[in-house]
């Protein structure tokens, strides 16, 4: 039997074993499923295993292990670096595994690996509960959680990984285990912030918190107010109450009815914030920042948390071309502000944004080495969002994002939050500190010695 006919027979055997089916390049749905949220990612796996359940995942992983075939895992497909798909690697597509079960009495949710955050929010909000999810509701639970998981509730409830109680994991040899503080504790440590490469998580068990309505909103300012707002942001956020999470965003004013027509299409700075405490206190909670400049317009009020979670979805449409980068800071001095403002105010494409975030609160009260997420004590981070609607604009927004990162580098830490890196190589080049890196390498050598799941080796 030739190598080609042998592989064809193997693919047929795998297809027969899968309840969800196997897509080959000539199948009608192949083009749709190989595509991910970032339209700049154009890779062609040799096949896509559409997993209907954990048994399908086990079958696909055993096949890949037997064939010594690299794998990628598609949960929501939202990772900007396109880690869900690799050339010459079998894609495990978990999209059909999106069920969410809520035990309201125990405040626990069991979430399958292909679920999106909007799936979780819809299920938990029916009980007045929530857990920390992404800033965009179409983000997949899996990749987001494995990378750490920052979001609007993080300063009150902790990161997504801080609310992970256990994970059902298919290892690289096809075995299925449960990882928690009491079982496979080393694996559980690495899953929380290690950015994957240790196994395929088929189910996440998460702690929930009482959250129904939040007081949230966005206040828009002329871009000329940026420096004053950034100084107010750095002064107020370190001592802000845990229920308050905010970001300052350099963006282009959309045609919203509460903004003057003459501002539409012009560069602005927006203060977006979420308060998950007493609504009456929420009416005043952002004033130490918001009152430092005269706004162009504002939209604030009490809103169901699940509604607020979808507020920024229109700014991240699937199929556009994106390049992100991220930097973390121990201080936010005037030299950093001077490096940031002119570049953030003048992007190459009006869709580009820059988001200035803060941590602290519940995030910082957990020991830095308790999980593989080693960035807890950094009080500030900045995400540079290169974004263009057309493929021909990609090189420009990529170079703009890289240039801004270079300008910020003298003020920044060397490592990056894995959920925001623009290309897989950044996970290696800007990995966490040496102790964390060494420990993760040892875990990968134990649980995936062939590196079949390693996310930092794109095709």
Overview of the molecule:
The radius of gyration is 22 Å and the shape is globular. Helices cover 29% and strands 23% of the residues. The protein starts with a helix and ends in a 12-residue tail after the last helix. It has a 7-stranded antiparallel sheet. It is α+β, with helices and mostly antiparallel strands and 459 residues long. Residues 1-6 have low confidence and may be disordered. It has 3 domains: 3-93, Uridine Diphospho-n-acetylenolpyruvylglucosamine Reductase, domain 2; 100-210, Uridine Diphospho-n-acetylenolpyruvylglucosamine Reductase, domain 3 (2-Layer Sandwich), CATH 3.30.465; 213-428, Vanillyl-alcohol Oxidase, Chain A, domain 3 (3-Layer(aba) Sandwich).
Summarize the structure.
Helix content is 29%, strand content 23%. The chain is built from 15 helices and 18 strands. A 7-stranded antiparallel sheet has the order 15-12-14-13-17-18-16. Strands 5-6-10-8-9 form a 5-stranded antiparallel sheet.
């Amino acid at each position: 039997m030739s190598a080609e006919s042998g592989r064809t027979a193997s693919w047929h055997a795998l297809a027969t074993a899968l309840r969800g089916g196997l897509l080959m390049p000539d199948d009608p749905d192949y083009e749709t499923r190989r595509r991910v949220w970032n339209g700049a990612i154009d890779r062609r796996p040799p096949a896509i295993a559409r997993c209907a359940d954990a048994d399908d995942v086990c079958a696909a992983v055993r096949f890949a292990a037997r064939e010594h075939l690299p794998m990628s895992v598609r949960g929501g497909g939202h990772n900007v670096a396109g880690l869900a798909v690799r050339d010459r690697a079998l894609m495990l597509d978990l999209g059909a595994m999106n069920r969410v079960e809520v035990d309201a009495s125990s405040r626990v949710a069991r979430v399958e690996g292909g679920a999106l955050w909007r799936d979780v929010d819809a299920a938990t909000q029916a009980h007045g509960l929530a857990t920390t999810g992404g800033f965009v509701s179409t983000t997949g639970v899996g990749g987001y959680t494995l990378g750490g998981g920052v979001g609007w509730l993080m300063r009150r409830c902790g990161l997504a990984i801080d609310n992970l109680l256990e994970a059902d994991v298919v290892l690289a040899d096809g075995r299925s285990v449960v990882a928690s503080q009491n079982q496979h504790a080393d694996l559980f440590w690495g899953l929380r912030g290690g950015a994957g490469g240790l196994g395929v998580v088929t189910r996440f068990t998460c702690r929930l918190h009482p959250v129904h309505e939040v007081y949230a909103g966005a206040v828009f300012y002329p871009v000329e107010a940026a420096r004053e707002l950034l100084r107010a942001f750095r002064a107020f956020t370190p001592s802000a109450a845990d229920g308050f999470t905010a970001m300052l965003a350099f963006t282009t004013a959309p045609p919203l009815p509460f903004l003057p027509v003459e501002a539409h299409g012009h560069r602005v700075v927006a203060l977006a914030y979420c308060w998950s405490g007493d609504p009456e206190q929420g009416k005043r909670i952002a004033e130490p920042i918001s009152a430092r400049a005269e706004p162009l317009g504002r939209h604030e009020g009490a809103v169901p948390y699940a509604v607020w979670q979808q507020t920024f979805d229109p700014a991240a449409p699937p199929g556009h071309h994106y390049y992100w980068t991220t930097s973390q800071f121990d201080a936010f001095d005037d030299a950093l502000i001077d490096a940031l403002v002119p570049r953030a105010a003048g992007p190459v494409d009006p869709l580009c944004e820059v988001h200035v975030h803060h941590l602290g609160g519940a995030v910082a009260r957990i020991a830095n080495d308790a999980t593989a997420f080693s960035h807890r004590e950094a009080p500030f981070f900045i995400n540079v969002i290169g974004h263009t609607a057309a493929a021909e604009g990609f090189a420009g927004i990529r170079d703009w994002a890289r240039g801004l990162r270079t300008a910020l580098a003298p003020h920044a830490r060397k490592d990056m939050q894995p959920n925001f890196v623009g290309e897989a190589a950044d996970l290696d080049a800007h990995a966490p500190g040496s102790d964390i890196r060494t420990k993760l390498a040892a875990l990968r050598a134990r649980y995936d010695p062939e590196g079949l799941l390693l996310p930092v080796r794109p095709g």
